[in-house]
Amino acid sequence: MEITLPLFGAATTTSDSTGLNVAGLVTSLNAATPWQLNLPDSGIFGLTGPSGSGKSTLLAALAGQRHCRGHITFANTVWQRGHRGLATHKRTLSLGFQDSRLFSGQSAADNLALARRYSRRPLPVAECDRLLEAFGIEPLLHQPVELLSGGEAQRVAVLRQLFNNAPLQLFDEPLSAVDRAQVLRRLLPTLRDFWARYPALVIWTSHDFDEIQLLAQRCLWMDSANLSAPLPLHEVAQRLDSRGVGDSCRSRIEARVESLNDGLLTLDFGGISIFADRVTGHYRKGDTAAFLLEAGDISLSVEKPGLSSILNCLPVTLIAKQKLADGRIRLQLTAAEQVFYADISHLSYERLQLYIGGPYFAQFKAGSLTGL
Amino acid sequence: MEITLPLFGAATTTSDSTGLNVAGLVTSLNAATPWQLNLPDSGIFGLTGPSGSGKSTLLAALAGQRHCRGHITFANTVWQRGHRGLATHKRTLSLGFQDSRLFSGQSAADNLALARRYSRRPLPVAECDRLLEAFGIEPLLHQPVELLSGGEAQRVAVLRQLFNNAPLQLFDEPLSAVDRAQVLRRLLPTLRDFWARYPALVIWTSHDFDEIQLLAQRCLWMDSANLSAPLPLHEVAQRLDSRGVGDSCRSRIEARVESLNDGLLTLDFGGISIFADRVTGHYRKGDTAAFLLEAGDISLSVEKPGLSSILNCLPVTLIAKQKLADGRIRLQLTAAEQVFYADISHLSYERLQLYIGGPYFAQFKAGSLTGL
Amino acid sequence: NADNCTLRVAVAASFRPALEQVLPEFERHHACVVQISSGSSGVLYQQIAHRAPFDLFLSADRERPKLLEKQGWVLGNSRQTYALGLLALWHPKSESNIEQLLQSWPDKIVLADPKVAPFGSAARQALQSLGLWEKKQTQLACTHNAGQAYLMLDSGNAQLGFVAASQMQAAGRDNFWLLPQHLYNPIEQQLVIPTQSLQPEEAGFLADYLRSAKVQAQLHHLGYGVLPAQYSETDGGRRL
Amino acid sequence: MNIAIADWQALWLTLKLAGLTTLLLFIIGVPLAWKLSRWQSRWRHAIEVLITLPLVLPPTVLGFYLLLLFSPNYAPGQWLSHIFDGPLVFSFTGLVFASVIYSLPFMVQPLLATFNTNGQRLIQAAAVLGIPPWAALFKVLLPASRAAIVSACALTFAHTLGEFGVVLMIGGAIPGETQVVSIALYQHVEAMEYGAAHRLALMLMGITTVLLLAARWLGHNLAPRGLNSEQVKPVMGVLG
Amino acid sequence: MNIAIADWQALWLTLKLAGLTTLLLFIIGVPLAWKLSRWQSRWRHAIEVLITLPLVLPPTVLGFYLLLLFSPNYAPGQWLSHIFDGPLVFSFTGLVFASVIYSLPFMVQPLLATFNTNGQRLIQAAAVLGIPPWAALFKVLLPASRAAIVSACALTFAHTLGEFGVVLMIGGAIPGETQVVSIALYQHVEAMEYGAAHRLALMLMGITTVLLLAARWLGHNLAPRGLNSEQVKPVMGVLG
Ligand SMILES: Nc1ncnc2c1ncn2[C@@H]1O[C@H](COP(=O)(O)OP(=O)(O)OP(=O)(O)O)[C@@H](O)[C@H]1O
Ligand SMILES: Nc1ncnc2c1ncn2[C@@H]1O[C@H](COP(=O)(O)OP(=O)(O)OP(=O)(O)O)[C@@H](O)[C@H]1O
Ligand SMILES: [Mg+2]
Ligand SMILES: [Mg+2]
Q1: Beta carbons of D129 and A120 less than 8 Å apart
Q2: What is the pLDDT of residues E163-190, one digit of tens each?
Q3: The whole model's pTM is what?
């Protein structure tokens, strides 16, 4: 069983904090493992875990759509106490169901208008137009929702929820049917910018960990009805990897922007210059930005390497190692007080005769850094 | 507009071939770009493309579920001629809708039993049990389908189609709501083995290109109602990448198995030994197996590199280069008569002073090869 | 032989209670079971015209038996008057001067539909004779038949209306005024034996029984008029 | 066709009655069906059955009990006539009242069936966007249930047109006030005016056909554009 | 309670009639509604309206036309009596025949509404697995439409119980053969036997309530296990 840790120190452990507080929440699914959860009043949190583990059930229970007992408060309002719950529509939340559940018999525009009309914090029209454009829904506005393609319906559903702009926004695999290119290049940046302007507490459920990594800083993990506290992304990534997901584990590292030149970003990482070339969004000099570094992309050498197409070379210290299920070794490295992971094969590990505490050189290509 | 090429040379260009032949298929969506398609009578083909481009429409038209005109034959039976079509249930196909569309009011077991009962080639009971176990559906068999989680419902839907075992199987984003770990480690290997034993013509639609790569050898590409002929995977990958998908382009390479030792596979690639350590399934010595090699994982050196944790080093020839949208350079390399791609940064390209036709060393880690 | 002698009698709903009173006596003397089907005379007429297997039809009026006779659906000479309906006016209990009450009555007056029900047309004739028909036109509320007119009054939804005297007798009420018979044409209730009849002979016995003095006396107690002897002669009684 | 003025009047009255009843039942039935579909108690089943009961009684008997209910002799009738500012018997208001009770199941049952199957999901989808239940009913559930609503209204309308027993019992067939076409039609049949009956029946069915077709056309065209286009249709023509 | 033997007989006959009619209508109505819901022609609307028309005619008038249809005086009646091996008028077979026609809309309309909304999707899902349409109807559509079917059957059953006009017209109220409880009840009222009428009405409603509750319970329990468990229910209790 997971041990629930308070997220932001003392602030969230008291029950009259302003965020979401869930204590001892029990549904028919998790009779033995009551759910605890403390989240601040804004921020984006991922939620992932195996199929059938109870993610949708948790969201439904939070929304009062599932029989449950326990204690839920949000923004100092009690939503659930024991068996009694506040009616769903009185909770200041919005929930996107796994099936989009658009209002049938109406057009996409009607759906959006309805969500905006009953919003407690309606968005300005200009903002709505901007979102419509970014989500590519404009040409579909007057189509009956029954005729939308799977991905189009999902985009309308997400947009409907954004138009509603509730203080707590729960999403259940909202973009699973949209092509990854659109998700990564258009939708996620739009969402990130939107929530920067209109802060809310967001729980973003997805089986695509990239999605979560590009949106959230912390992630909840659900496994067999066990809910973890919000975890740093690299811990969740590790859990996913240990379950044998083909995607390698990526670590989140932070560095200061030095310059942006011809698509190549020069960063300062503890005094050493590193380069990143797969960047989206706008970076300003002096900003500290977050990047994802893939464990499988890192190679380790004992001597400082010669000229190669690998741009980045960091002196690191090996602090721990762990054998992975498929025979590889995961190394925990540290540099400039940040921790990240590198995966190498067992053979390399033996050939290089690595030892804990030893100083090595970690090499990775500029393309291995994914900009958030 | 895409130009339609026959897939397997002369065999499929004649209209009385035994596979699927589609000529001049027009729906309300693609009035200007009639669809042509020639596929053999068995094999697995991917289908991908942006959201709303017409993938589901194509599958519906093939199944006779969408008003269309044109010409469709499968296994020498005419399914559509002009405006007239054969009734759906008389076509020897199965289609998995994007929404799982399980038969409501019944249990999962009822759903499966019904599909098997009306199958034209019913599976042996032992096979069914094996599939049930692999898909993790056994504990859910007697649950009403309304209560299944999103991923569970999708698994039941796929299973229902497998139980039906039609000669032509169309899948529309069948596993989008299942966690990737389960898809990659359990479901896809099960599917691959299943279709090896029970061959069928399969069209597998997905937005997850990994899924397609692990199942299919060729992939159809749909963009704004334009349907391509079946393309080699690396071409589709390139199109995806040019649309800005964060996943790097992977190339499919083939090598002969030399030995499998402690999770490390030793392969013969044109006389040079290479190593792969992320393998699933069973490999036998002497088999030629296919692997995916990620373009971003390859680094290039001018001189033969020294000792490093990078296990694999291939002498290659640079045959073409291409500037990518985000400032990087994609190199087309060849070794042992196979073509694959490597992505490097612009800076590296200049520092290494690469030139077309030059001989270099391509390095990649054992973990960069994903076993099919 | 009682087993295969069933006499199917179609009887107008209003006469059913009276028939049920006098039947046991008949059944005691004839080895025949009488099976009663009651309904509105109109419905029964339709049924007989479409060859319903009735042995005897006791209508509440004269028109329908006549019509059946004309159309040849009944045995010749079987048509006879078996009872005489008496029109009564239901009035509030306290009243004494009925004619004046009828004149000055401000509220609805209930009567059976003059177009289809014999008691309705009798009521119309009575009102016409009293010179009230035109005057009271807007106050008239028609029910389907005399039975429903009674229900309307009995439930208190109306206080004045025309009903059958037999109904008032059966209910043991006395707040009615028997209208003088000269105000309306006699409500002759006639019977016929349909050609479909399987037991014309037994049906004839029942007809004769109904017209017998003993039964007529009983009917008089039940609120029916006295059948003048002339009817049986002018209409020519059946000869068997 | 040669149709009497009274018949035209009856026709107009009938359409008014059916239209008003349908409208009222829509206003009553939609919230009622919706409340019932959301009510999780076991009493819900009892109430659903209770709503079906008016169907079980023969209309005339139902009319009889309504007569008792309307009777000024008892408290409910006094109260009702106070509420409606006049007695309900013999009045158009009374007819509407009776029709509403009689046709209730025709409106509520089909609505309940749809609300039970699709309603829950849609209401949930609305609630999680902060749309309160009543707004969800009108803005989400009704637009999604167009087909069922049109069907329920058509059934109710048609049934009220043909209603007869109840109306006959409490209406009094007062021309222009309570004589609806079904009674006129019945009177024609009873009075053996078959020609007039046939004409009126044809007329009634013709008008109903036109109205019902118009309702379907409306229901069809109220749906968002595109839904009815031929693109949705699966292939139907069978290959030779 | 003191209920006459004839009434018990009528009750039993009525239940038999209603049960048989519901069964027949289920057998006829399901395929009919399904064919209609799949039929893409514009005639479909016309036929849907045609099915509604029996509702529009007053039952007695419908009965009148049925009587004409059954009449051995004309060809259709002769043909029908040949088919059914005996005249339809005044026979139980005839009652069933008439009830089926009269109650058709009650079965077909609710079914059509469900089939139109959910049917298409499920039939498609079946067709793409090679399940032919008829098998899809029985193995896929019916199990998914349980609620609508139970509601349609309940409505039909209740309506047949209360059926009166048609039955009266073509049945002739022959005890044990065509005298159903609605007619017996009507006769009690007409004969001013209020006590008997009240008892019978109460009886009828009681039996119907039990039957309908049993039907709902059955429909409820035929659903796959778990669906009715409390886990599906959203929160309803409101926080103080
Ligand atoms: N209303 C319900 N009553 C009982 N059991 C349910 C109900 N809904 C879901 N379940 C079961 O509870 C488990 C958790 O379901 P849930 O939908 O929460 O999973 P999930 O984590 O969202 O999975 P997925 O990623 O596949 O959507 C499943 O095994 C499911 O079958
Ligand atoms: N029945 C229909 N009639 C008219 N237009 C339709 C119909 N179904 C879908 N469309 C439109 O046709 C386009 C293609 O839809 P389709 O479902 O084929 O897309 P798709 O490629 O499957 O997309 P996704 O990946 O989002 O599922 C969409 O813009 C959609 O709105
Ligand atoms: Mg879920
Ligand atoms: Mg699609």
Answers
A1: no
A2: 877 887 787 777 777 788 888 888 888 7
A3: 0.81
